[in-house]
Write a structure and sequence with these properties.
The structure is a homodimer of 530-residue chains.
Chain A (H helix, E strand, L loop, with lengths): L17 H11 L10 H5 L13 E2 L2 H6 L6 H9 L8 E3 L4 H14 L2 E5 L18 E5 L6 E5 L4 E5 L4 H9 L3 E2 L12 H7 L6 H4 L2 H4 E8 L2 E5 L12 H4 L8 E8 L1 E2 L3 E9 L2 H13 L6 E5 L1 H10 L3 H13 L7 E9 L1 H15 L5 E4 L1 H8 L7 H7 L2 E11 L3 H17 L6 E6 L6 E11 L4 H21 L19 H19 L13
Parallel strand pairs in A: 2-4, 3-4
Antiparallel strand pairs in A: 1-2, 5-6, 6-10, 7-11, 8-9, 8-10, 12-14, 12-15, 13-14, 13-17, 16-18, 17-18
Chain lengths: 530, 530
Amino acid sequence: MKRWNGWGDESVEFALNGDALAFLAQRVGAGTPVADAGFAQACAQLGVSRLPPHRLIEVSPEVRLRNALGQSLPDWLRLRYGVIGTAPDGVAYPESAQDVRDLLDYAQQYRVAVIPQGGGTSVAGHLTAPGGSQPVLAVNMTRMRQLQYLDTESQLATFGAGVLGPDLEAQLRARGYTLGHFPQSFEYSTLGGWVATRSSGQQSLRYGRIEQMFRGGSVETPSGTLHLPTFPASAAGTDLRELVLGSEGRLGILTEATVRVTPMPEYEAFHAVFFPNWAAAETAVRQIVQAGLSLSMLRLSNSLETVTMLALAGHRKLIGLLERYLSLRGCGDGKCMLMVGVSGRRALARAALREALVLAQPHGGVHVGRFMGEKWKQNRFRNVYLRNAAWSHGYAIDTVETAVDWPRVEIMMRSVEAAAAAALKSHGEQVHAYTHLSHLYAQGASVYSTFVYRLAGDYETDLARWKSLKKAVSMSIVGNGGTISHQHGVGLDHAPYLAAEKGRLGMSVMRSLFEHVDPQQIMNPGKLLS
Amino acid sequence: MKRWNGWGDESVEFALNGDALAFLAQRVGAGTPVADAGFAQACAQLGVSRLPPHRLIEVSPEVRLRNALGQSLPDWLRLRYGVIGTAPDGVAYPESAQDVRDLLDYAQQYRVAVIPQGGGTSVAGHLTAPGGSQPVLAVNMTRMRQLQYLDTESQLATFGAGVLGPDLEAQLRARGYTLGHFPQSFEYSTLGGWVATRSSGQQSLRYGRIEQMFRGGSVETPSGTLHLPTFPASAAGTDLRELVLGSEGRLGILTEATVRVTPMPEYEAFHAVFFPNWAAAETAVRQIVQAGLSLSMLRLSNSLETVTMLALAGHRKLIGLLERYLSLRGCGDGKCMLMVGVSGRRALARAALREALVLAQPHGGVHVGRFMGEKWKQNRFRNVYLRNAAWSHGYAIDTVETAVDWPRVEIMMRSVEAAAAAALKSHGEQVHAYTHLSHLYAQGASVYSTFVYRLAGDYETDLARWKSLKKAVSMSIVGNGGTISHQHGVGLDHAPYLAAEKGRLGMSVMRSLFEHVDPQQIMNPGKLLS
């Protein structure tokens, strides 16, 4: 069963061994485990539902609590400490577009706030129920999950928008196809959620972002249904798909989505390449991505992330051997690990990998083969379970991400890490901050930073630590000309920083768009635009 | 000097030889040349300017006439027959964003309609002045043409948005870069126009559509300035660039644009491959484009376009030899010509071409080398001059284009050609209609049809013929589920068909967006949304 107060399935544990704990203790001090609130105790906090009855709506506290929050650190703090705060008054599980239509009509009639959701994996506060007197309905889309149509000639697949990642891939794989969208939240996130938040997967270099995959569909809005037909391309005015992408539930609910699929790749491999330092590594990956090779992934860890990954990898002896070898080849302290993925026809994939290695070589790149890459692949959706394990030892893990053009990539990385350190220092704490470039483009890169720091053990202090950290890193992102999100979306947590990139007129254009389609402003109020 | 009543420079002629004229006469009957109206005679039709004076505005009839119309067939009929109808009351040539700002403030103050324009190449009526009592100002952006900044690290170039294609490429070439956007209108179209109409160039397979190239910029609107910062990618809500793309002057005026550029390719070649028939050719190109090879162009002519291109090519003896060779190899009557372009690093480009030829072979593809391809490349921007030559012999040439998913490509092609034939038959005339797929995608293709038919010799009859043709082919496009434009935009001529793909709600969303930014509705009124 899915954890109600943490990541993923209850049966899956990602334990931290003694070496790993020693490493963390050395970096930020020893953690003190915190006692979690119980499920029943948390449920008891929910008030009586204020919703008028509806055939599709469940109002039990258990269901409401399980659909109350996402995976942001403030969400975790509420759940772990049992300080639930607001929660939806009920949860609906529609099974058809007509069900969704009925629910929106009901919501308009009774002026109910509607929070569309998929697998509840938001890390930006998209799912938080607003306070105030308005009743709140969560619409959980995960029962709308079927592959409705596969057009192999046009390589298009139409799904119910609530389909979860593994289910979607399984339905396609049975027919020899893949979507290829693998965000770290893959196991619990949905197609509709990916579209609504402009998600990006680990192999976007081959498969594109969800923006490129999303070819059409159907959206139920308070003002009616928006049908988005599929065209290979169009010059006919505004591309309405772009208004749905990134709308974060403010416009309506995506009920079905048509996405671009491709035949399962014949061959897939992940290789690791080490570089002696950041400057060499960054120059190399820029040249590789600008060469336009047919790679499926480039993921560059900075030196501290490299150290961390090696420390947490287990296999102490093997890693020791690897490090001695790398040191002999010029990659000692300060080394940075690049993961290179290739997928597709065997000959072409191997040729692309060879070209990438040729470009890496003059920058001191040392190819160590597939071992680390396959290890990374095995753990690609397991790493996120680390958050549960760290918490149980008294550590919080949080992440932020942005994207900037190449001249600002390194400055951004250094500034975000320094801002996090300063913020926690003001609380008398240390942070272990490390960064990777998760998505590479000819124009620039996403900059993805992880922060590990100690829990204080009470809700207010831990919320205050997080608030300081979040504000500091967000100001740093904005101050260095980055977007407030490359792949997680805006939600509640990033909303205060959005105007910095959209400007006054851009903000008012977005607001007017949502008000036009949703004149009562019932759709996910307070998210994206605060 | 640029022709005032036809395409391109007065010094460039594309003559039709006797063979070509015999071919046309055989297809649709002998044409009768029509006498053109004179420039002075046309100028004399313009009334007195109704604009209040402004330092940036010129009001001479000569300047107004030269900025009055585009290149659609109705535009030509007005100019050739001297039936000018509406025209702007004045033309401004701003040289800075501040000039544009001043002009929009002036326009709002005096409630003047504003028609932004670049090189005046619209084939959809984007530039036509509305009738009625409101004075009309054309804002010609071509003096804002400088490369302002080239960021080689991020491969981004910022230009004044009025820069013409050849000027833009020359400024980049001097620094070793190219944009790679080559619509057939390249010589006279501008960067801003490409963005405003969602243009696509001949080598979009390598370089992308303008949507992919356009990374940011600045737009002056009646409600202020919209700054679009550059990010490699973003998940921060609505992508505001998408509201500018395809806005056709309704939102404001793009003053500068930052575009993605790449180093000049080391190698470039165009090769021709013939197929025995349409079915084989279509299957082959679908497989080639879905293989994701690094090609720069795929352009497939149907059999009648192939016949036409060979008939108009001159070189009768050489073409005769080619046809005998093709016939021996199984490509006789009904053969279809595919043009394959490759650009980039020599080894990779050649490998991609080889792969494409391997995929073509099982479908009867016969590779005839570079001769026809290089010929096509030489004439890529000259073919459009054929329209002047045909007119001088009494023939009209018009085109329409759409895009559809693969299952509908052939149906669309046949329907559009049949609709054109039926429409002109109702006027007792024949049409020579032929089609190519100009842009290929994994999902489908653009379908681009050309129509040659006889001029009647008077404005009303020729306008009636065109109206019948345009309505019939547009209805056919919409009826077969195509977009009303893949690359030309909507303007006046396609506006009646837009609702078929956008739907009621989509249309109202677009309208509300433009009304929000331009409350007085002074920006290019009547275009895109009629």
